[in-house]
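User: Show me sequence and structure for the first protein, then do the same for the second.

Assistant: Starting with the first protein.
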Amino acid sequence: MTTMIYVLTAAALLACLASTAAAVRQGPRAARALLAVAWVLSLGLLAANAALAEALPFGNMRHVLCFFPLAMGPAALFMRRCRHLELTGCFAAASALALIGALCMPLQAAWRQMPALQSPWFAPHVTSYVLAYGLMTVAAFLCLLSFRRGRGEQDLAAADAVVRLAFPLLSFGLISGAVWADAAWGGYWAWDIKEVWSLLTWLLYLLYFHVQPHPAFASWRRPLLLLAFAAIVVTFMVVNLLPQIESMHSYAR
């Protein structure tokens, strides 16, 4: 089973990388087909992780990173169908980045749900944050692409559309986490370091929405988007991975 998990992770990663390359060289149709292949492989990976863990595989960082491509496929389809934005390459690149992280982490074969995770809030809380973080990663890619000459405003407008889709998910993740904390630990907020960084991330994106309509603050848009994404990296990766940082959320490592 462990060999199958590594093979599926590597295969999904290769499909995501191929989709990213196809978006640049061959066009969106080939990129979409390859991202669909990555999605199917990631579905198999989710099933394999669930079978090995004997639980919903969302309880550690490797599990969550493996889930990213499953969330990004439908998000890419939604942006194309409902927002008329062809962003398959960016969604594939975000998925590839997550799978690279998953391959670099050890496989925790004996993982079990601790009592705090045995809650009906578990799946919706994690799913909303995975979708939000994945979408914000795509927005960060688009923000970086906006430095290109000739397409800067188009890329930045696309980034804005992605952030507008992600922000309600980010808000739900923050609120559901507080409700879950009250049920599990008897309080909505404990000023835990991960909670603080999650709130800071939310506030930075809220600030982006406040300055975005004002021409006087047009030069702030790119720095704010990149700064907010840096806060996501700290919240999701740094706080979880640095052993010297103590957190109530250390089970997510």
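Switching to the second protein now.
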Amino acid sequence: MITLDFKGSKPIYEQIVEQMKFAVMKGYLKPMDAIPSVRKLALELKITPGTVAKAYQELERQHIIMTIRGKGTFISDEITIKPDETKVMEIRKQLTTEIMELKMMGYNREHIVELVKEIYEEMSI
């Protein structure tokens, strides 16, 4: 469900937050679906529980997940995620820079589109 990039510049907890939000937006996770405990997810991802706890705290702050004492952690039943326009513009800027670099390396439009498709298909979410 969650794929981490340990070599990238984005903190691991932010990667977890983004991928959980993406899974909710796409309908892979629905309101009241149970999600793994902090310890279980940390073991699955081979990271520290503190990193998962930080991600879960941020997801709770954004009302994406909720913890029910004695029952577990669930996707919030009152969730509404809308893309953050500022974030979308930031990603667009990053993509533009990367595409320009590929063009300078000799990639044409078709190669770049195919590369993006391959990356998207490789994603496990």
